[in-house]
Design goal:
single chain; 1056 residues; alpha/beta; 9-stranded mixed sheet; 8-stranded mixed sheet; 36 helices; 12% strand; globular
Length: 1056
Amino acid sequence: MNKFFYFLLCTIFLINIYWVNGKLHKKVPGSLRFLNGRPYEGFRGHRLRIPEDIKKKLDSQYNEENMEFYYSQKLDHFNYDLRRWNQRYFYNGDLYKDGGPQFLNIGGEGPISIYDVVYPESPFVTWGSELGAMLFSIEHRFYGKSRPFSSQTVPALTYLTSKQALADIADFIREMNIKYKIKNPKWVVFGGSYSGALSLWFRQQYPDLCVGAVGSSAPVQPVVDFYKYLNVCQNSLFNNGSYTCGEEIKKGIKKLIEYSYDDTKRPYLSLLFQLQPPLETTTLNYKTLQNLYSSIIGNFMGSVQYSRVNAGPYKTGLSIPDVCGIMEDMTKDPLDKLAIVNKYIFENTYDRPYTGMDYSYLEEVNFLQDVEYDDNDLSASASRSWIWQTCNEFGYFQAGSAGNHSIWGTSIPNNLNIDLCTDVFGSQFNIDYIKNAISNSLSFYGGSAGYNATNVVMPNGDIDPWHALGTYNQTDTMIPYLIHNTAHCADMEPPSENDAPGLTYVRILILQNIKNWIGLTFNSNKSIKNFEKKNNIENKNNINDKKEISKINEIPVKFNSKLIKNTNKEDIMKKNIGMVHGLKSPKVNKDDIITSSSDITIGFIEQKLDHFNVTDIRTLQQKYFVNRKFNQNKSIAFVMIGGEGKAGEKWVTLESLPMIELAKFVGADIYQLEHRFYGDSHAPNNDLSTDNYQYLTSKQALADLAVFIKTMNNRYNYVNPQWITFGGSYSGALSAWFRELYPDLTVGAMASSGPVLAKTDFFEYLQVVQKSISTYSQSCADNIALGFELMQKMIMMQDGRDFLNKLFNFTYPWNINSTVEDYDVQSFFSNVYGNFQGAVQYSLDNTGEYVNGYGIKDVCEIMNNQTNDPLVNIVNVVNYMNTMYYDSSTPVPMSNTYKETVDFYKTASYDNGGSDAKSWLWQTCNEFGYFQSSDLGYNIFESSCNVNIYINICIDVFGPQFTRNTIDQNIIRTNNFYGGNKNYYGSNVVMAYGSVDPWHALGSYVYDKSRNLISYLIDGTAHCADLYPPRDSDLPDLKYKRELIRANLMSFLKLE
């Protein structure tokens, strides 16, 4: 009994040791050790791991109580609010000399320390000592002991913003000037990582309060998908470690994912990583595994980010050479080496034995939902504060969406980060909120490209993944420096004999600039050239309308009304994995009037292969159609621009089309010009190689149209011709863009459902799909969600895969001996949700089979069948949608491998009917993106398909040059060239979009009466609905908007 009481007393004593403010020290989830590029202790927490002998000396020399102060700070600087709170700061005046400057260390997302102002080896203190500076360090609101509220509820956190933090600094500086009677203040602000961005932004926003700023490793570019982080990690491991290291990591991650899908091998993973709890006793779901992958990959993220930074444990370990030394041991299995790295990182970071890894997403959420401060662990509350800032201002979400067949695979989708915001802070913090918040931050601060200030030095290390969000704009007083072979904030740490030459130089450079800012003699560094240059944006003046007329070849008409009957078949196989697009041909009814063949001309016009190279004499033949039945010698002409498919004669012969009805009324000729490389307008020599595809661009297509119009003007002797262009979907964008580039050749344009904004990750597509289905039937959307959730659980277990094999009739069944690849899983899911995409995009459009079915109503009837499970209903939807494409009475096999998709594109040709699909893929990879991923946080299709898969398809089909970065840069050029959806600059243009259509998310809604720029969102309609023949069943808003569009188009014409 005595032993029991002794044990009880000891237990109570130990509990009391760890009890602070009525709570126990919290257990930290493994995933928070290194989450989204931030160590648990903060971006620069390691700076406080000062050698014990130096720390003891400093502790004996300085009394913290004499240097720690609190300033009564405003709660809200931008509204009338009298509330105040105490903001902590440290001040060291021992080094000050009369007339010296004031140095301010800006606190970031963690607590400040007395060592920030007294540690003599840090450059901040060293420079302060040399220049006789006052040294201050101010703690960021909501971090450390600077707490505006007693807890971190969401209402309280609304006061945690970078703008409020900058205003804190401004008020603090003003108060210190008064307190210390500083008559000629010369404040220099310093910061690293997030606080580095604050430092640069402070100089930008409050240039009157400081003479200069140093912002080290400053991520000034807020971004939702910070895929470049893991991309830089990969490059740094290859370049600063070794090829073997990178490849072994890749093999290990691949094996990790494969084992996690294998019932027989999961126990080995549990044993190897000492997982708590073991995987085999856990209810598996995607987030559980994604969190596990993220935790393991985090080991390498940290070793790269801080590689040999001269502070804490990174001085001699935990860096690229150390983890690569483990991974290069070829006597061990790659997966086993991941576990060794995991154990090594833990033990050398926390100075205690490794006891296992918890990987629960739910535990992570619960930890971050705790609103209470923990005085025993200031990093705990800091984690919640920082996650709030990323969700509310910056993003910085480090997803594995770089493509490039990354060594990290597709294991960390952006959904994981977006959902964390939602789960921690509430349902309103979804992708729309985050996207808008980041857009606001970019608009306010300017981002990396728009950053502009004077007297700033902006060092970054090229090993550091955060350098990808830095700014490299340069003037004589705005100095960037990319330090070769250095990592995160290395310039802020004490010098070392092992420092790279560039690191030594940049410290000298910073000191020289500070001397200049405070008025000491200094020669300007105009010769600094070591910085990253901005991409050159093409000048729109390169495009002009000086296109000559060309040869035409008219051929006998080979069709009649019987030959343009409707067809139930698609021209292209359904292999576009989640890339639904295109303007479909209109429906022909038995009573419709079809223009006779005697009024139709079909011809081919000879076009230059390259309109922008005067020395290139190669040509191609481009098909066109002409209908002059309604000609009244008014020189009025309408042209339907061909898009990413074969030009159909219905667009010039079906007289119930709104375009043709208007042509009848005004006496216009009607044309259709097929797009180069599509349909019968073949690439030269039928060559669909990457080299030849360089001539398939929207700019070349628009130049084709310019030549065509000039040629037709000459051919038919038009006098003062009045052309109006028409287009739908991609060709709708072309119609709008033509008015920008060649305004003298037309009087107006009709652009239906034209996605004028190019975008790599077009996750908004599935957002609209979900919204459109939910609006029609919430139970339908809920059942889809239940079905996809069940599929994702089943695909992780062999018995579940066996069941899916039978349901979907996979082309390559996942049998017990099959290896489950993440790309294959994503291919399968994207093929499944592609059926819902098509049903929504063309719902109730007057085209093909969609006239009477295959829309939202029809798939929801299937999904709401309560006699079946939701999963069975999804299978029935797939089989139903397949009846549009196939005659077979038996279910069509479901493609479930990535290789099938790649092989389809690689073997596509004009002979086998795959050329148009491949050509459109090229245009998306080369100009537009439009990749329809599920990277939007919580949605009814779950984490089905990362944008990664589309990038890899581009690489595998067209070549390794199509990296994510290349595609992103191409899209930036496209948007800069045409203006995107916010800066479109055409005139006399009508744009129309359907509210149900997912493509309306990339439309332009700028209404400018002064230049006759008009945009309509048609309630309840889908893709290009306004272009199709009217029906009695058309929705009221469609009928109304068609009349408005007709009136707008007529206003562009000068009619006698």
